[in-house]
Amino acid sequence: MSQIYNFSAGPAMLPIQVLRQMQDELLEYKDIKASIMEISHRSTDFIAMAQKSEQDLRDLMNIPNHYKVLFLQGGASAQFSMVPINLLHGKTKANYAYTGHWSKKAIAEGSRYCDVNICTNSSDNKYTDIDVFENWNIDSDGAYLHYTPNETIAGLEFDYVPEVDMPLVADMSSSILSREVDVSKYGVIYAGAQKNIGIAGLTVVIVREDLMGNVVANQPILFDYTTQAKNDSMYNTPSTYSWYVASRVFEWLKQQGGLSAMAKINKAKAKTLYDVIDGSNFYSNPVALKYRSWMNVPFLLADENLNGLFLEKAAINNLITLKGHRSVGGMRASIYNAMPQKGINELINFMKVFEKENS
Ligand SMILES: *Cc1c(COP(=O)(O)O)cnc(C)c1O
């Protein structure tokens, strides 16, 4: 099979080494004479895998002991509900930063549980810029502040962490594990797995212990972080195969040198691509320089009529899934951890040739 570079925003490319390992272990996992999909989540082998995966993630992110790590289902979208259910703690308000499509969805769901105070709003600039933190309008009665460090669709990424006197909640679905973060600054971090952790079906939640145990009444028992933490994320059957894939990705990340090494690689990858976009009049990216995403790089062609041809020729060159989100148009290259520098090099070579041929 020739090497194909898949720029899908999610579910996204997996490291080839992990795919090969999944293949090797598919029919027989270790010496159990079955695949890991076919055994009980209560079995010794599954529990060993689960425990090691948690430890590997703790090592990678340097997660302090007073945080629980949960491996849940329901996607990041279920966390849009679980966050207010678990963190309101009797309060009636919460702060939300509105910087793009996904924060908008979090706000819509949060509004079902409390009065949402939109403390900053990037919709006026079409999600291409973020206001400086001093200008945010934070309600000090809010139970927490929710934000989206990387907005996957517009490619808008924070270069700072908001500092507030209330739990900080981050939807890190499209940026977790791409660089180091100081977990101790957060009350809750959550991420759907299908971008930078593994495959769909798993959501990782990192929650500070003292925030658990005071939930809104009469909510689903599965939506209580305490239920999940007390049962090691096995109150009911977890998403076993997605969890296993995540465990292999965590091992792969450790082999790559951990998150400081990934940060260097990711920063260089993004720079290579933005340099080509900025160096041409043929391609453009509208996001403020400071807030350009390392993971999702949208770009427009000066002549929109060439979009179809660009995608067609890119695919012939083994560069697939580059179509931008319909709300932004143009192209989007999602370049998560699994995308090697070589894939970026192939993309920029293609972009340069396409520009020459069509300008
Ligand atoms: C993809 C994405 C989501 C949605 O994730 P699901 O797992 O499909 O619910 C939420 N937030 C961000 C930032 C995303 O990139």
TrEMBL record:
One of its GO terms (molecular function) is O-phospho-L-serine:2-oxoglutarate aminotransferase activity. It catalyses: 4-(phosphooxy)-L-threonine + 2-oxoglutarate = (R)-3-hydroxy-2-oxo-4-phosphooxybutanoate + L-glutamate; O-phospho-L-serine + 2-oxoglutarate = 3-phosphooxypyruvate + L-glutamate. GO terms for cellular component: cytoplasm. It is an enzyme of class 2 (transferase). Its EC number is 2.6.1.52. Binds 1 pyridoxal phosphate per subunit. Pyridoxal 5'-phosphate binds at A76, S77, W102, T152, D171, Q194, N236, T237. L-glutamate binds at R42. Pathway: Amino-acid biosynthesis; L-serine biosynthesis; L-serine from 3-phospho-D-glycerate: step 2/3; Cofactor biosynthesis; pyridoxine 5'-phosphate biosynthesis; pyridoxine 5'-phosphate from D-erythrose 4-phosphate: step 3/5. The modification N6-(pyridoxal phosphate)lysine is found at K195. Keywords: Amino-acid biosynthesis, Aminotransferase, Cytoplasm, Pyridoxal phosphate, Pyridoxine biosynthesis, Serine biosynthesis, Transferase. Pfam families: Aminotran_5. Residues 4-347 form the Aminotransferase class V domain. Its main location: cytoplasm. Its cofactor is pyridoxal 5'-phosphate. GO terms for biological process: L-serine biosynthetic process; pyridoxine biosynthetic process. It is found in: Cytoplasm. Catalyzes the reversible conversion of 3-phosphohydroxypyruvate to phosphoserine and of 3-hydroxy-2-oxo-4-phosphonooxybutanoate to phosphohydroxythreonine. Homodimer. This is Phosphoserine aminotransferase. The gene is serC.
